[in-house]
Structure to design on (284 residues):
């Protein structure tokens, strides 16, 4: 099949699950971009595929198929958007020769190392990887308290305590979120994701769990930005948690209005925290 000429009006999406890919498609089309989607089976919604101008379904690990499709469609720019269930790496991967060759070159099988390696390979093939917030800066988490409830003195201490612990696990590329209570770490996010971390830590807390989610030091805005939304607050409400503290301007928030309404109903504090240049926190 003949390869189309590369066209800067085309833009690719390497799509996982959730609403982020659909948000991007809508925004990109407002900018008169033709959207070409590589959708992952078992992750990407059919709604995302239906909204695309061209779509190719792949299994996790079919990297050569992804690159060939983008080249056929004339894609020179792409973004990584949406979630991939990380535990699938052990049970539901179908790597092709290109993916296997890349995998064998990666010493640390952690998020940043894997995604940077894929991005470098794509760029060596003439496909530039853009920041995932392209066209979607309005989805960045805002600073300040978003809810009617405001953090009290004890909750502020827990936010500060959780913040520096979360930053440290991020530095180690383990996760982006911790659950704390009374300046005690109850759960650390690893491969299972934020919601399961909240459930695990919240069960240990009994109630009043404080969830802190931050960017990793040196976070690459091209992929794996921290994200929260309505589902996060609903999960926190299930364990009678009290606070969701998220790094403002460095993470994404989905369904903001619905999230705040749910938090107000549950009496949960939601706050966007800013880390000042001197390392102190502006909690709101």
């Amino acid at each position: 099949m003949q390869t189309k000429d590369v066209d800067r009006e085309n833009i690719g999406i390497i799509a996982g699950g959730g609403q982020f890919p659909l948000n991007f498609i809508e925004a990109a089309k407002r900018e008169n971009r033709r959207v070409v989607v590589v959708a992952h089976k078992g992750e990407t919604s059919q709604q995302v595929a239906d909204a695309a101008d061209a779509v190719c379904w792949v299994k996790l690990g079919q990297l050569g198929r992804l690159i060939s499709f983008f080249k056929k469609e004339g894609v020179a720019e792409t973004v990584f958007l949406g979630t991939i269930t990380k535990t699938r790496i052990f049970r539901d991967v179908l790597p092709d020769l290109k993916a296997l060759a890349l995998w064998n070159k990666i010493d640390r099988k952690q998020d940043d190392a894997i995604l940077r390696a894929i991005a470098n390979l794509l760029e060596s093939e003439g496909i530039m990887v853009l920041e995932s917030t392209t066209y979607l800066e309005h989805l960045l988490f805002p600073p300040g308290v978003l809810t009617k409830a405001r953090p009290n003195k004890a909750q502020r201490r827990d936010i500060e305590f959780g913040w520096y612990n979360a930053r440290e696990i991020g530095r180690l590329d383990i996760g982006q979120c911790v659950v704390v209570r009374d300046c005690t770490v109850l759960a650390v996010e690893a491969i299972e994701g934020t919601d399961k971390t909240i459930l695990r830590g919240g069960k240990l807390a009994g109630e009043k769990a404080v969830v802190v989610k931050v960017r990793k030091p040196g976070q690459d805005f091209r992929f794996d930005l921290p994200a929260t939304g309505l589902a996060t607050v609903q999960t926190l409400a299930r364990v009678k948690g009290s606070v969701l503290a998220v790094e403002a301007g460095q993470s994404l928030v989905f369904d903001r209005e619905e999230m705040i309404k749910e938090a107000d109903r549950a009496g949960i504090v939601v706050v966007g925290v800013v880390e000042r240049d001197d390392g102190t926190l502006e909690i709101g």
About this structure: Residues 74 and 84 are 25 Å apart (CA to CA). The chain has nine helices and 14 strands. The domain at 10-129 is CATH 3.40.50.20 (Rossmann fold).
